[in-house]
Amino acid sequence: MTAHFPDKRHAGTISGRPITSVHASALLMLFLFATTAVSSLPAVTTGGNAFGASFDTCWYGSIPSAFHDDPLPVRSHLAFGGTVTPLSLSVGTRCELSLGISGCCATRSLAYGTTVWRSFAAAGPMLDLTCAIDERFSFTAALHLLIGKYTQIPDTFPMLRVSAAAGMRISMPQSRHRLTLTLPVSVDLRTDYVSVSAGIGLMWRMDRVSKETT
Amino acid sequence: MKKRFSALLFVLPLAASIVSCELAWPKPDKPTMRVLVVALDYSDDDDVKNLEGTMTDAKEVAVALNELAGTVYDVEMETTLMLQGSDPAAQGRSSDLYPTKANIKRQLKSYAENPGILESDIFVLYYSGHGSERDASMVAAPSLDGDVIITASDLSAWTSGIPGAKLIVMDSCYSGQQVAPYPQTAAQRDDDGFAAYDPHAFYLTASSVDQSSYEDYFDDIGHRHGYFTRYFLEAIGWDHCTDYSSTLVTKDIDITVDGRIPDTVRPPAATGSGITGGNIYRYISDVFSFEKGWIAFQTPQTNDGPLDMVLFSEQW
After folding, report:
1. CA distance A172 to chain B (A)
2. Which residues share a beta bridge with B140?
3. B90-96 contacts, C-beta under 8 A, 24 or more apart
């Protein structure tokens, strides 16, 4: 039987079950865990809303699927990412919901033998929930809907990123500017393979009103 | 408790990454490269239009790849040429290397059946000749049975059994039909239409599935080339100078061309560790897009997906 080769321009068209429907229950569990885990902690009001940005750098591991027939279980890249969150709203007395734009880029992987995994960049909207554990430490769970593009070739791909980060505030407690050192980890879900990452970052948030502690 | 959890959230993936990464795994063997160059000018085929740049394409590509292997990257390379045309280097009709369909099939099958070719090796097929939109990736030399058409399926079937990484380079019309589509989704991976996908096969083609590819006389270098091959050579560092000549000695024929790979200049497609198929594709596409404005008429193609092939590396 002659194999059908579709027009190259359409070779990247995505079909099949959307990623979100496959992992919706897992995402719901993640958010429920994030909020219930800190629900019994002492109250610290965050006042009104805020805006901010973050940046991180990390080790990025692409996990080849079986059909890639890769000699390694993980291919290693260096990645950089950031978010801009123009809107952050208080949720309860200890949590903050933020909406913004997320972007990331990964270098090509380390070469191994005769193969290397391509570099890519991705961007899209994100939603995160940050909850203060105490005056200093916090936990952030986030969801990013990204469109990625390999830097060498014209085709694009969708990607769902689920991330979590432990944070340690390094700015003064009463300052409107909150600078937090973060340790983010994430899982990137694509239709053809999965990736994981772990790194270090900085998150800045500025409160639009003064913060009060009770 | 929460702080320990947070630390664990970071430490476990990082530890897994260190154990699994390219630096921890045993280094693969240095590949041996095998190159098959097939080119036809159709000067002895009355049914097909003659091409005037294909012989030059083939000889310079063969010599350039061998110079890269020998003088720059210190890699063992075996080259076989199958040439049909008016060039003195071309094989005669009686030769097993005269590029009829049967001979090309036999030659490709010989690589698949060679026990000395390893999974760590590299095979490169370079083709310069005609292609047809009616599922004809290659138009071979005439033979007694009159069958000259090599389809994309034929070529995929003949090369699929060759161990190791395979780079298929085609400077011919409609050559994009040779690029096997990448199965992005689970449904596509179950679809027979994507059955030709081979994670070890990589492609560089001169045009898309419905475009012609062109050749021309280039004043700045003083001879003809396919547009794609001209910039393929440039990407891998070939210097079209007449002050130097370079020679390739094979088992069957010896060829000498003007030009060289300067060992003091980094090839444009080379990055930190070597030359990849994706970087060659990027270089040619950028020239076509931003310097020549040809991209709408002739759009080079390569394979989709995350995998790229390392053609030469200083780290082997």
Report:
1. 20
2. none
3. B90/B55, B91/B252, B91/B253, B93/B44, B93/B141, B95/B252
The pLDDT value given to residue B44: 83
Question: Which of A8, A14, A19, A135 should one mutate to test binding to chain B, selecting the residue with the greatest count of B CBs within 10 A?
Answer: A8
The whole-angstrom separation of Cα B27 and Cα B41 is: 43
Report ipTM (2 d.p.).
0.92
The answer to whether residue A212 scores a pLDDT higher than 70 is no
**Inter-residue contact B13 to A187 (CB < 8 Å):** no
Does residue B49 belong to the interface with chain A, where contact is any CB pair within 8 Å? Answer: no
Residues in CB range of A58: below 8 A, 6 or more apart: A78, A79, A80, A81, A184, A186, A197, A198, A199, A200, A201
A181 in contact with B at a CB cutoff of 8 Å?
no
Torsion on CA atoms B82, B85, B87, B93, rounded to nearest 10? 70
* Among A136, A128, A134, CA closest to A169: A136
DSSP collapsed to 3 states, B234-283:
HHCCCECCCCCEEEEECCCCEEEEECECCCCCCCCCEECCEEEHHHHHHH
Q: Is A24 on the interface with B (CB under 8 A)?
A: no
Instruction: Give me the residues paired with residue A178 across strands.
Output: A205
Whether the CB of A4 is below 8 Å from some CB of chain B: the reply is yes
Total-model pTM: 0.86
Residue A86 confidence (pLDDT) above 90 = yes
Distance of CA A19 to the CA centre of its chain: 15
Instruction: Report the 10 Å Cβ neighbour count for B20.
Output: 17
Name B13's Cβ contacts closer than 8 Å, sequence gap at least 6: A61, A185, A196, A197, A198
Does residue A17 belong to the interface with chain B, where contact is any CB pair within 8 Å?
yes
| Window 135-194 of B, Cβ < 8 Å to A | 135, 151-153, 156, 164-165, 176-177, 179-189, 192-193
Mark yes or no for CB contact B25/A152 under 8 Å. Answer: no
CA A147 and chain centroid, separation: 13
Average pLDDT over residues A44-53: 67
pLDDT tens across B252-300, in order?
Answer: 899 999 999 998 889 999 998 799 999 999 999 999 999 989 888 999 9
A113–B310 CB contact, under 8 Å: yes
* Per-residue pLDDT tens over the stretch A128-146: 999 999 989 999 999 999 9
- Among all residues of chain A, which has the CA nearest to that of B205? A8
Task: Tell if the CB–CB gap between A76 and B28 is shorter than 8 Å.
Answer: no
Cα separation, A66 vs B197, whole angstroms: 13
Q: Which residues of B are less than 8 Å from A57 in CB distance?
A: none
Q: In chain B, what residues touch A17 (CB-CB under 8 Å)? A: 186
Residues lower than pLDDT 70 in chain B? 1-10, 12-21
